[in-house]
Structure formats: C-alpha cells, structure tokens
Amino acid sequence: MRAMRWAPERLVGLLVALPVLLLMSAFATLAIFLGVRSLATTEPELLVPLVSLGATVVGLFWLLSPLLTGVALSETHDVTRLLHFPVPARTLVAASLVANLIQPAVLAKMPIVLGVAIGASPGVAGWLPALLGVGLSFAFILAADQVATLLLHGLFRNRRARDVGLFVGLGLGFALSLLPVLFFAAGLPRLGALRALLLEWDVFSLSPFAWGVRAAVYAGRGDAVPFLAHAAAAAAALVACLAVAAVLVRRIHRGELDLGGPSSGAPGRPARMLLPGTIGALLEKDLRVAWRDPAIKATALMSLAGPLLFLFFVFQARGPEGVGRGLLMVAAFVGASSFGGNAFGLERRGIALLMSLPVERWRMLAAKNAGALVLRLPGVLVLAAAALVAAPVFLPAALAAALVAALVAAGVDNYFSILFPVSVPEPGQSLGAGGGRRGFAAAAMGALMFTGSLLLASPFLFLAWLPVQLGQPVLWLASIPLAIAGAGAVYAMLVAGAAGLLERREPEVLERMLSSAGDA
Amino acid sequence: MADAPSALPTPAAIEVTGLRKVFRGRPAVDGISLSVARGRFFGFLGPNGAGKSTTIKMLTGLLRPTAGHVRIEGLDLERDLLAIKRLTGILPEELPLYERLTGEEYLQFTGRMYGLTREETRLRTDELLEFLSLTEERRKLIVDYSQGMRKKTALAAALIHNPRVLFLDEPLNGIDPVSGRVVTDLLRRLAGKGVTLFFTSHVLDVVERLCEEVAIIDRGRIVAQGTLDQIRAQREVGKDATLEDVFLKLVSADVRREDLSWIA
C-alpha cells in the first residue's frame, strides 16, 4: 500500500487485476469442485489416485517455482535475514509460514482448497474433516516450499551455483511450458494408459503432498480409519518439514552446513578483445556479458523454440510442397523479432557507464543492434537447417528475408528503446523488480512501431519473395542483393535518426534506466 | 587516440555558472557557481543529500541541468559533450561496472572505448592492475570482486586514457588502508602532473590532507569555497580549527550531545 501511494499506476493495475483474480479464482474453484464431485460419483476408484497426482504435481511445481520461472526467491522465505534477532528459530520458521500463507497469491488459492474439500465430501458432516485434510496438504506444500527455498538460498550464496541454477531452472520451466503444446500436437493423449498406471500402481500414495487430500477423500466417504491414518501421516510430515526448516535455518546461518559459500571465482584465460574497432569492442562486450548471464543465455537458447514451433506447424499444415513459402514467413518472423530487443536493457545500471564513454551514438546503436542480431542466430540456424532439409532452393531467400526484416526491425526498435527506456532485471530478480515496466501507452506505441517496421520491411521482403511468385528462382541473383541493399539503406537512415534522438534524450534515457534498474 | 585531445587554452579546468537541478519541484542543486583551476586538487564536500553526486552527474553530462552552464577545459558541456568525455575520467559512487566481465576484460574494453590501440590498452591494463594490486584477480569476473576491488577497478578504468580532469565520487570508500594510501599517493602525483581532480569524500581529514581548495555544499547551495585558510578567515573560526570543525559549523549540523533516554 505504501508503494502504491507513490505509484498510482500500480493501484490502477491492482484495481483492474483484482476482479480478474477473483473471477479466475472463482472459476478455478467451481471447475475443481465439479471435477472432484463428478469423479467421486462416476469413477470413485479414480478419485484417490487422481487427487494424489494433482497434489503432488502442484506441490512439485510450487517447490521448484523460484527456479522454473527464474525469478527471485521471495524475501519472505529468507528467514536468515532475521536470525540476528533474539527469536528462536522455530518461531521464525512458523512466522514465515504464516507470512507466506497470507500472501495474496496464496490467499487466492483458499477457495480452491475449499472447493476440493467440499467436492470430495458429498455429505455436510464430512466437510470439516475433508477441509482439515486438504488444509494439511496445502500447509505441507508451503512448508516443503520453505525448506526448498532455504536450501536454494544457501546454495545460491555461491554465484556459480546460482547461475547454473537459474539457467537450468529457466530451461526446465520453458521445456515444461512447451509440453502441453507438444502433447496436443502429437495427437490424442493416451489417457487410458495413464488411468491404468494410476489404478494399478497408485504410485502417488507415497507422496507426502498427497496424504492430506487422500485423508479428505476418505473423510468424504466416511472411512474413519484411513482418514485418521492419512491425516496423522500428513500432520507428521508437516511437523517434520517445519523441524527440518528450523534446523536448516540454524545450520546454514552458523556455517555448519556448507552449501558452497561465496564464489571464489576460478582464474580464466587471458583477456583479449578480438573484434576490431569501437563497434567491435562494444559488440564483444555485449556478447561476453550475455553469455555469462544465465537469464540472457537461457533466453537466447529459448529463441530456438519459436522458429521450431512455427516450422512444425508449417510442415504439418502445408506438406512438403508449401514448405518453401512457409519458410519465408518464418524467416520474416525470425527477423522481425529483433523489434523488442531493447537496445539498452541489458546495460541495466551500466547505462551510466556506457553513456559516459566518448563514443558516437550511432556506433553504440549499431553495436547494440549487431548484438541483438547475433543473439537471434540460433533461430536463423534452425531456419537454415529446415530449409536445407525440406527446400534447399529456398535457403538464400529465407536467409535474406530474415536479414532484411531483422535490419529494419532493429532500426525501428532503437527509437522504441530511446523513447521508452527500461532496464531488464538483474539475474535472479523478479521480472517486475525495480519497476521495470513501460506501461500501456508504450505497449500501444510498440505495437504501432512494430507494424511500421513490418511495413518498412515489406518492399524488401517482397523482393526476396518475388522469384517464388514468378517461378523464376534465378531472379534471386538480382532480387536478394537489391533487397539487402535497400534494407541496409533504410537501416542506416533509421540509425542516423535514432542517434540524433539519443543525443537529445540521453539524460532522460539515463534517468529512466537508472530508476527502472533500482538506482536510488 | 592515445591521450586526451588538446583543448582551448583557459585558466580554469572546470567553470560552473548558476548550475541548478530541480527534481519534482524541489531543487537538488540550487544555482551553484564555482571555478577550479587546472591541476588543482579540489574537494567538494557536503552532508548526505546535499547535492554532491547530482552536481558530479551534471558536470559529467550524465544529468541534464535545469539551468546553468558548465565548461570543462574550455569546452561547453552542451555542445562538446563527446570531446569533454574524452578529456575526463569518472569514478562514480555507485560503481556500475559490467559485472560479467573480468577485471582485465573491463579495462581492455574501456581502453578501446577511449580510442587506445590494442598495444597501449594491454600495456596500461597490466600497469594499472599491478599498481592497484589486482593482478591476481584480473581474470575473475567483477561480480565476484569485493567492494574495494570494484572501487580499484573503477579507478583504473577512470585513469586508463590519461584524463585531464578526474571526477572522483567517494574514491576511498570501501578501500583498505594500504590500498587507500596507494590511491591517495597516486592522486597526489596526478595533481602534481597537472591533472585536475574534483573529489568528494566524507572522510574530512583525508580531504584536508589532499585538497588545496574545497567547496562546501549544503541543501543544494555552496556555503563556502576557497582554501581552508580562506574559509577559516571568512567564517571567523580559529586558526587551529580543522576542516571538520569548519564543515560542521557551515552545514549547521545538529550534533546531539545528550544521551539516549533509555541508555543507562
């Protein structure tokens, strides 16, 4: 609330988001209630294994969420910051658990907990024990999350471990987010096999995340003994988790549990700036920084996925004959993705350093754009490989289309980056850290500029595509150089204009960047 | 370009007239004027929030003044910004270094940005790293550096192109006493060779030892400027008064003498 006092746009955002959150929570609650109730009546034998699976999946995702999303570990989890106060560790752990429980995102799950409990228990008499069971599972998820986060906090004291964790976590999260797409794209899922697996083996009966919800289902059925056994097991697991958390807090703080400590940093090879000239040095600096920043490296590698998915759908929808034209479309998409590269975003607080250098601003922009193009090379390589396999004759045109779209999009993006400068978060910080957002006006202007860049690039894309339309691939010998030269000329004009704009707006860019990077 | 380019002859290295910066209607710097002669070791003092860093940011072109004029080595800051950047070195208080470069890479990058050749850059990098006792750490990423090592790296970067004017914002913060002595000796030698140093620090005895002239800023206004003797005379403090005494008197510091009520 205090933060909102100075940022009315956040209050507006919250007021807009609140009804949506409530609606989504209500919808999820209703859907889960109906699902559980329907299972309980139509296929009661599936209810226990399915809710066990659900609770385990939710628990694991919750546990890994700081890694999977690549965002900061919540400060509320970091009880080690409070250890110098004369308060027992168990009190800190319990207080932290309560603090986590009353976070808005957690509170929004409460109706869902209620929905599961009431759904699992047709009779009113079973509601209270069912709610107790689901509540135990929920509390265990929070407590296990706390243990995992304490371990991660300890582990991430080592910068290298933190970098690796972020990189692997981001990659894993991204791969998981693609699973549903691939799942449905590959055809109907084999639900029958999953059902057999769940019924035959009931593997999730061993998951402590599931014990509470299993107790809830037994409570709903009026089976007192299994309810009591599962509820007792869930309560014991919860207490054990809290005890582990308290022990970890003490041991990590006192250095008894060595999870790496501060990174000593191994000596590397001698430094050599290989690329010539000012633009070369700036480009090399950006590439080195990007490669050593786990979040940027992961993002660069993830850029492979977009073209891969597009190509997958192109191959599915058009068959081998139409692949060539599809490739040109994908190439234009890969190139146009240079818009949104955020020329100065990766500088973060280093923007003050960059702007203090006596380098012509057009060189700076050209180096930034070159860096953005290099980071998109994985996508271009995917495109080239697909062209080589499916339609080799389209390869030059596809690469030319990617290049001309990239040049024009990068040139236009400079204006967007100067007019709406914003810093990307530091590795491991949340995406909204430091208020690094541009707002609705910038989003609208961005959409307009992106459309403009496509319009500007369209004559050159047309030139690259024309020989296909005419059925005369030999014309590419003339059309591709023309397209590249034209796009190059447009890019040069765009950069010259953007450099002038940057010179005029440099202090404003600095102020905005430094405030979005969290500079006081 | 090896060293700083030549500039118009002028008696003052830094000339500031009516410099003003207003943030949200509140003046952070309120019409200051000062002049620093070439080769001077100039101390710029003030309590927290007085406007020191804002002034340095404006003098180095990182913040646009609301009003006023700045000339560095005779060049106008608005018109000749790039030329001024070639002449100056900056050690900012916040140290926004590229943390994912090694110290050696960072210095090589900085040298190249100032137009030094590869050979010059390599030579100066080696010398600076050796001089500042960073040779053993040269191939570590800056993200793994201690605060003192970062400060020394930033200082090396500010020096690598042999600037005519150095802006140093709290250069001794976080540096151990041994390195502190090395740095202060170096700064003295630079001043002796005609480099102008614009220096801020909260360590007043260091300022008293190093600076030939000081300006004291309080709430955005310069409240005193000159040598320590001149300021003592202007403000009618005793001849034995230290810079700290003068400073506290000038900035109206509310130094509480009484004890806290709950401390026995």
Mean pLDDT level of chain A: 80
Largest sheet of chain B: 6 strands, mixed
**Strand segment tally of chain B:** 10
Kindly report how far apart the N and C termini of chain A lie: 20 Å
Estimate percent helicity of chain A.
over 70%
| Tally of strands of chain A | 0
Q: What's the story with the biggest beta sheet of chain A? A: none
Query: Rg of chain B, please?
Result: 19 Å
Distance between the termini of chain B: 65 Å
Q: What's the assembly state of these chains?
A: heterodimer
Describe the model:
The complex is a heterodimer of chains A (520) and B (264). Chain A is mainly alpha-helical. Helices cover 75% and strands 0% of the residues of chain A. Chain A contains 20 helices and no strands. Chain A has helices at residues 2-5, 8-42, 44-68, 89-101, 104-107, 110-120, 127-155, 159-185, 191-201, 208-221, 224-254, 277-292, 294-302, 305-336, 351-355, 361-375, 377-390, 395-419, 440-470, 476-516. The longest helix of chain A is centred in the last third of the chain and has 41 residues, at 476-516. Chain A is globular and about 80 Å long. With 264 residues, chain B is α/β, with parallel strands linked by helices. In chain B, 35% of the residues lie in helices and 24% in strands. Chain B has nine helices and ten strands. Chain B has helices at 52-59, 81-87, 103-113, 118-131, 147-159, 177-192, 204-210, 228-235, 243-250, and strands at residues 12-23, 26-37, 41-45, 67-72, 75-76, 88-91, 165-169, 196-200, 213-218, 221-226. In chain B, the strands form two sheets. In chain B, strands 6-7-8-3-9-10 form a six-stranded mixed beta sheet, with helices on both faces. In chain B, strands 2-1-4-5 form a four-stranded antiparallel beta sheet, covered by helices on one side. Chain B is globular and about 55 Å long. Chain B starts with 11 loop residues before the first strand and ends in a 14-residue tail after the last helix. The A-B interface holds A 159, 262-273, 278, 281-282, 284-285, 288-289, 292-293, 348-353, 355-360, 503, 506-508, 510-511, 519 and B 60-64, 81-83, 85-86, 90, 92, 94, 96-98, 100-102, 104-105, 108-110, 112-115, 118, 121, 137-141, 143-144.
